[in-house]
Amino acid sequence: MRRRRGRIVLHVDMDSFFSAIEQRENPELRGRPVVVGADPKGGRGRGVVSTASYEARRYGVRSGMPISQAYRLCPSCIFLPVRHELYWRVSKRIMQILRSYAAKFQQVSVDEAYLDVTGLVKSYGEAEKLARRIKAEIYEKEKLTCSIGIGPNKLVAKIASDHRKPDGLTVVPPGEVESFLAPLPVRKIPGIGPRSEALLKELGITTIGELAQCDVQRLIPLFGRWASRLVMLARGVDEREVRERSKVKSIGREQTFPRDLEEEEELRAALEELAERVHRDLKEEGFLFRTLTLKVRFSDFETHTRAKTLRSHHGDLATIKEVSQSLLSRFPPRKVRLLGIRLSKLKKRQAVTLDDFM
How far apart are CA 111 and CA 61, in angstroms? Predict the structure, then answer.
């Protein structure tokens, strides 16, 4: 019986994408703390941080943080509005570069993608050379840096891409997965946020290695059906394929917050930011929608959705904001760790409308 050949997967993550583009466009911003998001209005502004430059991160500013908190941490930061049109144009060019290097390609956001290069390279050494060519081409054409992780699956590649940011390159062959993951904090596993980290800490589990050795039965009371999946991820097991994008049936975005949100103003601001991102995706794909689904995950991981189907198709930002805020108001006041908006029952936009300019 022929043994299945192992995969080689790359995860490419642009470094501080929005703020890096702003620093590229305005050389006077290079080396200075830049926050892309909203106007802080002297610490009273609404909205959240979309991206913080690495200089701003030294002050504790992070993506998803309320803009008012970012201002308190770093009043000397340069606060800039989000320029979606510019960022998406740059993203399209970068994704075209990445696609040309992959046997299978999967874009997962405006600034990150997976590349399955199995069959295109014969070893992890060749994969590393390929990654260096990718980094060089992106920098040559866009004057932007990225970090790349290489591993036997999507999970390991993603964690590896974050290991040496910015402008990093980390290679984790199959035989080194356990030793690479073991000392890392459990928060490095995608999906484990502050609440999960706290629950695991109560069990004496702080590293991925400790989680990998944990008896699943200890985790079930806290994480339910996700417990076994959690342990498998800690062991570096991830069978998800790198998938080409199929026919678009829905368009959505979701965000897990660095800390649970409870204040109504923070939730509304975060939802507005999410609505703007989804609206940008809708316009880029050239669709109108009829159904909007709001996803809410509370601090205890309890997850609920609410949906509304409109009488006709829409494509404007105001409708997305109005419907999503209306659905949010139906939920009880509780701490929220994740919000998501998904648009479905799509149809292609037939002609240019006023929505294209809103």
Answer: 19
> What is the residue-averaged pLDDT of the chain?
90
Determine the Cα–Cα distance for residues 331 and 89; give it in Å rounded to an integer: 37
Rounded CA-CA distance 299/337 in Å is 5
CA–CA distance, 283 with 355 (Å, rounded to integer): 8
pTM of the model: 0.70
Which residue among 22, 25, 28, 112 is the active-site one?
Answer: 112
Question: pLDDT tens digits, residue range 91-134?
Answer: 999 999 999 999 999 988 889 999 999 999 999 999 999 999 99
Q: Is 112 a catalytic residue?
A: yes
What kind of fold does domain 250-357 have according to CATH? Dna Ligase; domain 1 (3.30.1490)
Specify the CATH architecture of the domain 18-83.
3-Layer(aba) Sandwich (3.40)
Crossing angle of helices 264-285 and 317-328, in 10° steps, is 140
